[in-house]
Amino acid sequence: INKSPGVAFGNFSHSFIVHVDNKTNKAQTIEAYVGKSVDKYDISFALRNENVRLMVLRPRDKDLAERAANTALDLVSTKALYDYALDFEDPSELSCVEVLTESFKRASDKEIRVPFLPAKLDHKNSEFIERMNLKNGELITPDDLEIDPRFELVLDWKDGRLIRNSRYKDAVLSEVVRWSNDHHYSFHSTVKTFMATN
Predict the structure, then answer these.
(1) pLDDT in tens, the chain (198 residues)
(2) What is the 3-state secondary structure (H, E, C) of the chain?
(3) Of 67, 113, 115, 181, which is least surrounded by CB within 10 A?
(4) Claim: this prediction has a pTM higher than 0.85
């Protein structure tokens, strides 16, 4: 899938794996948050957040799904920090979507690559790409899982109270990305933005 510079960001900003304990039947999520290491959370934590949209996807291969969930649980013990560089080749630091990609990679002995069709970023403004800590080329996002044929849709839920505001923000962000590409706009740092990013 090729995403044009104007739509480099999509509906989903986060992803996680659900692990269900065979003995207790307790569900928990394995995920990575900005500023934290990979960790496990009670499933209610994921549902308490102000989610605009939640989608539950289940791998069609049940055995692989179970192995990937167990592998994700093993990742918690590594205490991998959040991967701000989004370096998909280095598993020592992991973003939320990298928890999924790494879990499926390890669970399948590197045979299964998730997602099936990763997005591609082609942005002409190198200053913008550097500042956003991105690279042109393959860019794996949580959105890419939605169209992976090896997963089936279990649930697609939207909170109507929050959709309008979320769409406005997505539209603004998409336009900023497009303008930076088409008109070579750049960001100018202030002390406040420097502090926030560092």
Answers:
(1) 223 333 344 577 889 999 999 899 999 999 999 888 899 999 888 777 778 888 899 999 999 999 999 999 999 998 899 998 888 888 999 999 999 999 999 999 999 899 998 888 888 988 888 887 778 888 888 888 888 999 999 999 888 888 888 888 888 988 988 999 999 888 888 888 777 766
(2) CEECHHHCCCCCCCCCEEEECCCCCCEEEEECCCCCCCEEEEHHHHHHCCCCEEEEEEECCHHHHHHHHHHHHHHHCCCCECCCCCCCCCCCECCHHHHHHHHHHHHCCCCCCCCCCCEEECCCCHHHHHHCCCCCEEECCHHHHHHCCCEEEEEEEECHHHHHHHHHHHHHHHHHHHHHHHCCCCCCCCHHHHHHHC
(3) 113
(4) no
Q: What are 57's two structure tokens?
A: 């996807």
Residues 128, 37: Cα–Cα separation, whole Å: 27
Quote the tokens at residue 86: 């989004």
